[in-house]
From TrEMBL:
SUPFAM superfamilies reported for this sequence: S-adenosyl-L-methionine-dependent methyltransferases
Organism name: Aegilops tauschii subsp. strangulata
This protein's name: Methyltransferase type 11 domain-containing protein
Classification via PANTHER family: 2-METHOXY-6-POLYPRENYL-1,4-BENZOQUINOL METHYLASE, MITOCHONDRIAL, METHYLTRANSFERASE
Family matches, as Pfam families: Ubie_methyltran
InterPro entries tied to this protein: SAM-dependent_MTases_sf
GO molecular function, one term: methyltransferase activity
Length: 164
């Protein structure tokens, strides 16, 4: 298992948390500082790629998706988990309220005010459904939006068996 992040500080935090875990499966993670736009791996290196709440912070999302495709073995999967801008007024209003009144205050109580302050604005500027972007990446197919309420989006993608 390999974890990649642009921030060396984030990787240090991840490594220290990894050291605190007692299960053997947590000991098998290698942390690498890297750029999602230029991943430091050879073509067809991974059986799977997951991104959790990270794609929103990448400037060139289509380029990042192409990099994910490049490092995936043919026929393997990528999964992207992130908050999603809802097209439902009710859901969007509830999400906005929850961020202002639950998420940010709770994060602030742990000293993470700055880290979560941008969340609301980033959601409002984020894609309405990541599948819009994924479908523009021609070498991905079988995109699945497995979000239940269109607030948190998990898209699972599979690469074509023969990538071009």
């Amino acid at each position: 298992v390999v974890g990649v992040d642009f921030s060396g500080q984030q990787l240090q935090t991840a490594a220290s948390r990894q050291d605190q875990r007692w299960k053997a499966c947590y000991k098998n993670i290698k942390w690498i500082e890297g750029d999602a736009l230029d991943l430091p791996f050879t073509d067809h290196y991974f059986d799977a790629v997951t991104v959790g709440y990270g794609l929103r912070n990448v400037v060139d999302k289509p380029k990042a998706m192409q990099e994910i495709l490049r490092v995936l073995k043919p026929g393997s999967r990528a999964s992207v988990l992130d908050f999603n801008k809802s097209s439902s007024f009710f859901t969007a209003s509830l999400q906005s309220w929850a961020i202002d009144n639950v998420v940010v205050p709770l994060a602030s109580s742990y000293g993470l005010t700055e880290e979560y302050k941008y969340l609301k604005s980033s959601i409002s500027q984020y894609l309405t459904g990541l599948n819009i972007m994924f479908r523009s990446c021609e070498n991905f197919h079988d995109t699945e939006n497995i979000s239940r309420h269109h607030v948190i989006h998990n898209a699972c993608l599979r690469t074509k068996l023969e990538c071009t």
